[in-house]
Amino acid sequence: SALTQPRSVSGSLGQSVTISCTGTSSDVGNHDYVSWYQQHPGKAPKLIIYDVNKRPSGVPDRFSGSKSGNTASLTISGLQAEDEADFYCCSYILDYDFVFGSGTKVTVL
Amino acid sequence: QSQLRESGPGLVKPSETLSLTCSVSGDSISSSRYYWGWLRQAPGEGLDWIGTVYYTGNTYYNPSVRRRVAVSIDTPRNQFSLQLTSVTAADTAVYYCARHVPNVGGWYRGPNYFDSWGQGILVTVSS
User: Fold this and answer.
1) Phi and psi dihedrals of B42, rounded to 5?
2) Where on the phi/psi map is residue A57: left (φ > 0), alpha (ψ -120 to 50), or beta?
3) Beta bridge partners of A64
């Protein structure tokens, strides 16, 4: 089943928000193969974090990832208007399977 | 960075087969550097991984669709394809193809994260 994410989070411009992604000891808690994607309305998802806390080239450093036990987290520091989007986590499961989170809508107030 | 583009029918009848193709530019699909995957997103819903193929022809599928899905690779055309049989309204979704980057180092050497995506194609299942 899908990894658990909050349905929505919000914050004011310049503030920080954190999105949680809760799985089990078979997926998120078993390794560091967790990635995060940002999706603006009507657009394809974009990779923003991989391997729990690594940022691809070109992704602003206000996006950071971490993990504790069965829960991974994405933090957006210094929230910008363009950060308003849907965010999805994804984890590898054993035996070449992948599961996504339920998705979180970030609203910039 | 790879450029990917999905193509295929936007309307499929129930019980028929959905067939999509992903054309890749900027990368050779026959390279061992990457895997190539299909994902989908039903209207208003989250993302689901469907399946992934390697240049060797090895495939990996989501257990929920494994009995109905086939992903194949066409190295001369630098394309890979998705076939989903016996479709129902529940298969209505935007379908994405993506580059699936392998993990390097560690105990796991298979596909890991998706770093380049196509724009997506809406496929509606309806009579």
Assistant:
1) -65, 155
2) beta
3) A75
B74-103 residue pLDDT tens: 999 999 999 999 999 999 999 999 999 998
From residue A52, alpha-carbon distances to A35, A38, A56, B40, B49 in Å are 6, 15, 12, 23, 19
Contacts of A90 (CB under 8 A, 6+ apart): A3, A34, A35, A36, A37, A98, A99, A100, A101, B47, B49, B113, B114
Give the pLDDT confidence score for residue A100 in this predicted structure.
97
* pLDDT number for residue A96: 83
Contacts of A77 (CB under 8 A, 6+ apart): A16, A62, A64
Q: How far is A38 from chain B (nearest CA, A)?
A: 11
Nearest chain A Cα distance for residue B62, angstroms: 6
Residues of A at the B interface (Cβ-Cβ below 8 Å)? 2, 31, 33, 35, 37, 44-47, 50-51, 56, 88, 90, 92, 96-103
User: Nearest CA to B9 among B65, B71, B68, B83?
Assistant: B83
pLDDT of residue A51: 95
B77 Rama sector, left if φ>0, alpha if ψ -120 to 50, beta otherwise: alpha
How far is it, in rounded angstroms, from Cα A78 to Cα A76? 7
CA angle B6, B10, B15 (to 5 degrees): 115
